[in-house]
Automatic annotation (TrEMBL):
<keyword id="KW-0418">Kinase</keyword>
<keyword id="KW-0963">Cytoplasm</keyword>
<dbReference type="Pfam" id="PF02224">
    <property type="entry name" value="Cytidylate_kin"/>
</dbReference>
<dbReference type="InterPro" id="IPR011994">
    <property type="entry name" value="Cytidylate_kinase_dom"/>
</dbReference>
<comment type="similarity">
    <text>Belongs to the cytidylate kinase family. Type 1 subfamily.</text>
</comment>
<feature type="domain" description="Cytidylate kinase">
    <location>
        <begin position="6"/>
        <end position="219"/>
    </location>
</feature>
<feature type="binding site">
    <location>
        <begin position="10"/>
        <end position="18"/>
    </location>
    <ligand>
        <name>ATP</name>
    </ligand>
</feature>
<keyword id="KW-0067">ATP-binding</keyword>
<protein>
    <recommendedName>
        <fullName>Cytidylate kinase</fullName>
        <ecNumber>2.7.4.25</ecNumber>
    </recommendedName>
</protein>
<keyword id="KW-0547">Nucleotide-binding</keyword>
<keyword id="KW-0808">Transferase</keyword>
<dbReference type="InterPro" id="IPR003136">
    <property type="entry name" value="Cytidylate_kin"/>
</dbReference>
<dbReference type="InterPro" id="IPR027417">
    <property type="entry name" value="P-loop_NTPase"/>
</dbReference>
<dbReference type="GO" id="GO:0016301">
    <property type="term" value="F:kinase activity"/>
</dbReference>
Length: 222
């Protein structure tokens, strides 16, 4: 059977990874979180005191950085040069720096190569910012998820509370807006809806509703 590619893009904290995992599970596809790859490189740069604005040094670091995405019973695990960094890549420091790392064309070029390799010859659900536009332009299904910044901050807040943190709602909103701005305004593969993507506003939808809508699109294609 021919392999299937589903691209899910959208701004920060729009619920991409949550629904991507559900859809991947339902279709027995692998889930690839491309944001985790940029986050892992960012963590490595911070740990090695590599200047995140220095494209050449970052590329050199990336070429020595092994990033693995593993599916486990507890969900997706992220390994950086053999170390489990699943939680570490979600730190505030990484979150606040990652968009600067992801701006560099040479970094994106290498990441896109790795992402295409992961998607080769198998069915995938891949989420990120440029999947439908650049990484998998031939994807059978392209989804662009949006939600108001208030709703996205609220969801992030609730996730944080579950983990025992109490961030400020204002700070979360600012961080999300800042990241969206950098990601949308960069020259290399900015965050933008692909012409042939289906936009879903998730502001007043449940996770299940969104996953069902995507599954409807999948059945239309099969
Ligand atoms: O998806 P997540 O919020 O974890 O992504 C972290 C950051 O990685 C984004 O804000 C963006 O700067 C970058 N990214 C990207 N292209 C992708 C996925 C993520 O530039 N395909």
């Amino acid at each position: 059977k021919k392999s299937l590619a589903i691209a899910i893009d959208g701004p920060a904290a729009a619920g991409k990874s949550t629904v991507a995992k559900i859809v991947a599970e339902k279709l027995s596809c692998i889930y690839i979180d491309t944001g985790a790859m940029y986050r892992a490189l960012t963590l490595n740069a911070i740990e090695n005191n590599t200047d995140i604005n220095d494209e050449k040094s970052l590329l050199n670091l990336l070429l020595h950085t092994e990033i693995e995405l593993l599916q486990s019973e507890q969900g997706q695990l992220v390994y950086l040069n053999g170390q489990d960094v699943t939680d570490a890549i979600r730190s505030q420091k990484v979150t606040n720096s990652v968009s600067y790392v992801a701006k560099h064309p040479a970094i994106r070029h290498e990441m896109v190569n790795r992402q295409r390799q992961l998607a080769e010859k198998r069915s995938v659900v891949m989420d990120g910012r440029d999947i439908g536009t650049h990484v998998l332009p031939e994807a059978e299904i392209k989804i662009f998820l949006i939600a108001t910044v208030e709703e996205r901050a609220k969801r992030r807040y609730e996730e944080n509370v579950l983990k025992g943190h109490t961030p400020s709602m204002e700070e979360l909103k600012k961080e999300i807006e800042k990241r969206d701005e950098i990601d949308s305004k960069r020259e290399a593969a900015p965050l933008i809806k692909a012409d042939d993507a289906i936009e879903i506003d998730t502001t007043s939808l449940s996770i299940k509703d969104v996953a069902n809508k995507i599954m409807e699109e999948v059945s239309k294609k099969q």
